[in-house]
Design goal:
single chain; 268 residues; alpha/beta; Rossmann fold; seven-stranded mixed sheet; 8 helices; 21% strand; methyltransferase
Length: 268
Amino acid sequence: MQDDVYRYNEERWEALVEADALFTRPMLDLDAERARDYLSLERLGLPGDLAGRKVLCLAGGGGQQSAAFALLGADVTVLDISPGQLARDRSAAEHHGVGVRTVQGDMRDLSVLGGSSFDLVWHPYSLTFVPDSRIVFREVARVVAPGGHYYLMCANPFFSGLTHESWNGEGYTLEQPYTDEAMTCYPDQDWVYDRTPSGRVVREPREYTQTLSRIVNGLTREGFVLRLLSEVRGDRRDAEPGSWEHFMTVAPPWLEFVWQYRPGAPGS
């Protein structure tokens, strides 16, 4: 179903590809060692031997993670809403001489993928692009194999919608209500375009707040067990107040989770 959420995200990411935004640039300088360092599997407590393992890069197009996993011997599928992003996955795979399957679709509907098909679902920052995270979690639970893992990176729910521009001279003013499915819009950060973007106008990200309780309870109810939680923050303590670097030292903008799918486990 291509609703307004789908159409907005597809249009925005096609514009980001044309503007050559940071997340749309395929990684063409990888080898196996660099791929392993980039994915940080050891830090995340994930299995390092990927030979023959089935990996789904969920809403993770752009030719970055897919290329890294394929270079480590994984059987990689990428599902993304943007045809332009998927084209860059294919380009990166061809450059590295590896195979990657690409599928255009919505993270809320993985019916095109087989049940219990993947040993690892790798989900970079995109969960906040849809209103109800629980729909995504149900779909992930269907396609990941028992014992498999789900890596999720998302906005820190407590600071969603807060940026360095919220500096008031003493701190960062939190104004958004802490609730589920509140829509937020804010300009892209400068680092998204560290090259000159094209002349195409890129619409602001349209994101939806997700409370920590909905994320955690939604996943445990689907049969996932939490294995790791990491706060992604900066360490530039000398950064100028009101800058993105300073903001990152005060409020960790992102969280990383590693979940293991164990249907029937206590609490699921």
